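> call design_seq(struct)
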């Protein structure tokens, strides 16, 4: 597992860290949030959020305020330069990725094209 402490290629907002910690506390576990990119979705790729109990050797570990996020090596290619955020808006609350590599986004917020 790769842990980068300076110049992390993907950042985690304070809001996302707070929400991850709240979810983990509710689950009663100290696991990881796994963020991945998969083929599919209306724009070609989609973000996947899941939980993991352990890290793989090729995972990047991002930590902020006790929250831990894993990103696999393949997904990192699509996510470099991105910020993982958590938004609480009138239409709902969700994790949101601001990805400078995406050339197209779907209205659902989870699908993108490159």
């Amino acid at each position: 597992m790769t842990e980068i402490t300076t110049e992390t290629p993907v950042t985690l907002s304070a809001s996302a860290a707070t929400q991850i910690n709240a979810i983990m506390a509710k689950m009663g576990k100290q696991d990881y949030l796994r963020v991945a990119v998969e083929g599919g979705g209306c724009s070609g790729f989609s973000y996947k959020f899941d939980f993991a109990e352990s890290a793989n050797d090729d995972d990047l570990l991002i930590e902020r305020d006790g929250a831990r996020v894993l990103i696999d090596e393949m997904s990192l290619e699509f996510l470099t330069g991105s910020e993982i955020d958590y938004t609480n808006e009138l239409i709902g609350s969700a994790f949101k990725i601001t990805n400078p590599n995406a050339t197209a986004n779907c209205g659902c917020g989870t699908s993108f094209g490159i």
